[in-house]
């Protein structure tokens, strides 16, 4: 899933981005509050991590604009302000969670995972499709109890498909959820990852069906399904 980090401290932002990418998220970084709404209109982010002390405007103003625009994207406020009044203001304006600096990276990542799960409508960390089980917290996929040796981006594509079992996921949607703005995306990269997933799932696992001109969908294995 794709996350937007709005933080003007470059060193801190680099650390957050690196940690979340290691956890399998696609992450974009923005240092100014003025550009946040435009970014949210361009991409369907699963979460916004928002600093309050931005150089051009208050994070509270950014949050207010997000909610006034009718956007329901989860927002995690990350700030050095620890006063109760600030937490109350942020939550009343529509924030979903609040984490004060300094923070433990492990706690931030756990809160991010929880908010992304809640925003996807699947609060449980475990997703299933027939004998395929994906633990989003541990980033482990198993098929009939056997661990599948999948890379992080393969797991990200698997998560996107299993969240929408029986529904078509476009190639563009997969790219948006798996890659960040600064990633160099080859024209056939999704096809390559889909092929790897199919090899790992084999004949016994759920099928990833190509819908010509539309995208891909995952369905439980059936003899009639066309791969």
Structure description:
With 227 residues, this protein is an alpha/beta fold. It has 8 helices and 11 strands. It has a 5-stranded parallel sheet with strand order 2-1-3-4-5, sandwiched between helices. Strands 6-7-8-9 form a 4-stranded antiparallel sheet, with helices on one face. It has a two-stranded antiparallel sheet with strand order 10-11. A hairpin with a 3-residue loop joins strand 10 (207-211) and strand 11 (215-219). Helix 6 crosses helix 8 (189-201). The chain is elongated.
- As a whole number of angstroms, the C-alpha radius of gyration is 19 Å
* Proportion of residues in β-strands: 15-25%
* Largest beta-sheet details: 5 strands, parallel
Bulk shape? elongated
Reading the helices and strands in chain order gives: EHEHEHEHEHEEEEHHHEE
Number of helices: 8
Low-confidence stretches: 223-227
Brief description of this entry?
This protein has 227 residues and is an alpha/beta fold. Helices cover 38% and strands 21% of the residues. Strands 2-1-3-4-5 form a 5-stranded parallel sheet, sandwiched between helices. A 4-stranded antiparallel sheet has the order 6-7-8-9, with helices on one face.
Secondary-structure topology with pairs:
Elements: E1 2-6, H1 10-22, E2 26-30, H2 36-42, E3 47-50, H3 59-68, E4 75-79, H4 84-92, E5 97-100, H5 105-119, E6 126-129, E7 132-135, E8 140-143, E9 146-147, H6 152-163, H7 171-178, H8 189-201, E10 207-211, E11 215-219
Parallel strand pairs: 1-2, 1-3, 3-4, 4-5
Antiparallel strand pairs: 6-7, 7-8, 8-9, 10-11
Helix pairs in contact: 6-8
